[in-house]
Specification:
PHP domain-containing protein, 523 residues, 3-stranded parallel β-sheet, 16 strands, Pol/histidinol_Pase-like, cytoplasm
Length: 523
């Protein structure tokens, strides 16, 4: 049956369809639209759910989660697994435990593949299959696809599917028919997807350009590596029903899968690691003990009454907000650095904390300066404290490796940073993809200073005596503006760690950094 709803006035049935194969621009240099654009378009199409399946990655899933909240379109959390043997599978966690298994699976592949790569084999997928709904992405209805489908059926009992997707190639309808017949013979249900790479047809050219950038070729050299049809955008249910009118059950199954995969990122709860040298006392009691010991060392002639009152006030607020473990973490890192004679200094709003001063984290004496602790920790804001500590550049790696060793590599990793296209980078890569000469690209880039929202203006082009009527030049300028702000790749934060009590790869995939012995999360 076609997915319908009879809730409309007048008894007119409304078609229902959820697009379950959507690639965002966090499948770096492959997707051409942001999560915000994709979910806004899904809302305009009247969809109720959207499945985000970036390639071997969950890097963009937080932004998709936020876009889903903004638009009211439900996010179906997912991932496309491109295996080393060429097999591709869409997987969607049905619950929190299955999501953790997906994160661990991706971490396994990323550790094996190294920086920005993910190498997964079929036995890896089998080991982490529990709780995942899987959809095989086939090519032709041949013996290899049949083998993959049997494997999928056996590894995902009751949760295996085969995708039916138009390719706009000769004999496309016969290909879909053969695939559906194969799936029926093997007892695997089919599901319609559109394999979306951009949110609306106008993004097709940009998608071609990022494909050129990924392959490091010009548009004239791209050939068959170019996506072969312009249909890879979000379509409303009515249009999908017309395209797949022979497969109403496969259309309806998109809603069934979306309803089955109800996991939400809202279910993730961060747990700070326990921090105490003595397990018989609480973190707050440990912090209080260290605070008063530090106060005696800072004020050997006696703690001034005003400082004592400030310390008591801060400790009460820290206890109320349950931030003691965080202070203990920073204290232990600073204590280690100083034990190795590594220069370090806390800075920023933490300088308003008397507790940070007596612990030796900062150097602003509350006895000589008027401090405002609420600038640092506020009950009204309910924001975690932020203690920035600088370490001497030549020896900071010693501190970072100590953190990895102390907390364990399954509980500690650096944050990633998203390297996005700025004006010069966008002009350079788009110009190269469109075959502009190196001299022309350099000349255009020379007109840009810093971050420019507009890119190179028409006035600047005219001043350079360039012909704005040249279609390739005009296209390069327009596409460079579209590309600005898009993510190009992930890099590592210079020193921002995430530490957890439970396994970190239960929350987010971990991958090796470019530098030896470092690792980063995807967010």
């Amino acid at each position: 049956m076609v997915g319908t709803s009879s809730a409309n006035p007048g008894g007119v049935s409304a078609l229902r369809y959820a697009e379950l194969q959507v690639t965002s621009h966090f499948s770096f240099l492959r997707g051409a639209s942001s999560a915000e654009e994709l979910f806004a378009q899904a809302h305009a199409c009247g969809m109720e759910a959207l499945g985000m399946v970036d390639r071997n990655s969950l890097a963009g899933i937080v932004r998709a989660h936020e876009a889903a909240k903004t638009t009211g379109i439900r996010l179906v959390v997912g991932c496309r697994l491109d295996l080393a043997d060429g097999m591709s599978i869409l997987v969607y966690p049905t619950d929190r435990a299955a999501y953790s298994r997906l994160c661990r699976l991706l971490s396994v592949g990323k550790k094996r593949g190294g920086k920005a790569k993910c190498v997964l084999h079929w036995n890896d997928v089998e080991a982490y299959a529990e709780g995942l709904v899987a959809v095989l992405v086939p090519d032709q209805a041949d013996d290899l696809t049949a083998l993959h489908l049997r494997r999928l059926r056996d590894a995902f009992p009751g949760c295996a599917h085969l995708a039916l997707t138009l390719r706009r190639r000769p004999n496309d309808q016969m290909r879909l028919y053969d695939l559906s017949q194969m799936a029926q013979a093997l007892g695997v249900p089919t599901v319609v997807t559109n394999d979306v790479l951009f949110h609306e047809p106008g993004q097709r050219m940009l998608q071609d350009v990022v494909t050129c950038i990924r392959h490091n070729v010009t548009i004239d050299q791209l050939g068959h590596r170019r996506e072969r049809h312009a249909d890879r955008y979000l379509k409303p249910a009515e249009k999908m029903q017309r395209l797949f009118s022979r497969y109403p059950e496969a259309l309806a199954r998109t809603i069934e899968i979306a309803d089955r995969c109800r996991f939400s990122l809202d279910e993730l709860k961060y747990q700070y690691p326990e921090e105490r040298d003595d397990p018989t006392i609480s973190p707050q009691e440990m912090l209080a003990r260290l605070t008063w010991e530090g106060a005696e060392q800072r004020y050997p002639e006696g703690v001034p009454d005003s400082v004592r009152a400030t310390l008591e006030h801060e400790l009460r607020l820290i206890a109320k907000l349950e931030y003691a473990p965080y202070f203990l973490t920073v204290n232990s890192i600073v204590r280690f650095a100083r034990s190795q004679d590594i220069l370090c200094q806390g800075r920023g709003s933490a300088a308003n904390s008397a507790v940070c001063y007596v612990l030796g984290i900062t150097s602003i004496d509350p006895g000589r300066n008027d401090l405002l602790f609420e600038r640092f920790v506020s009950e009204e804001r309910r924001e975690p404290p932020d203690i920035d500590v600088d370490f001497e550049h030549e020896r900071r790696e010693i501190v970072m490796q100590w953190i990895f060793e102390t907390y364990g590599r399954s509980h500690a990793a650096l944050c990633s940073t998203v390297i996005r296209y700025r004006t010069k980078g966008a002009l350079r890569d788009v110009g190269k993809a469109l075959g502009l000469t190196e001299d022309l690209i350099k000349a255009l880039s020379s007109q840009v200073w810093g971050w420019s929202e507009e890119g190179v203006t028409d006035e600047q082009v005219k001043d350079m005596n360039l012909n704005l009527g040249d279609r390739r030049l005009r296209l390069a300028l327009d596409l460079a503006r579209q590309l600005m702000g898009a993510p190009r790749h992930l890099s590592q934060h210079p020193g921002g760690f995430v530490l957890t009590h439970d396994r970190l790869d239960d929350l987010v995939p971990i991958e090796p950094a470019a530098m030896a012995d470092r690792q980063v999360i995807e967010w």
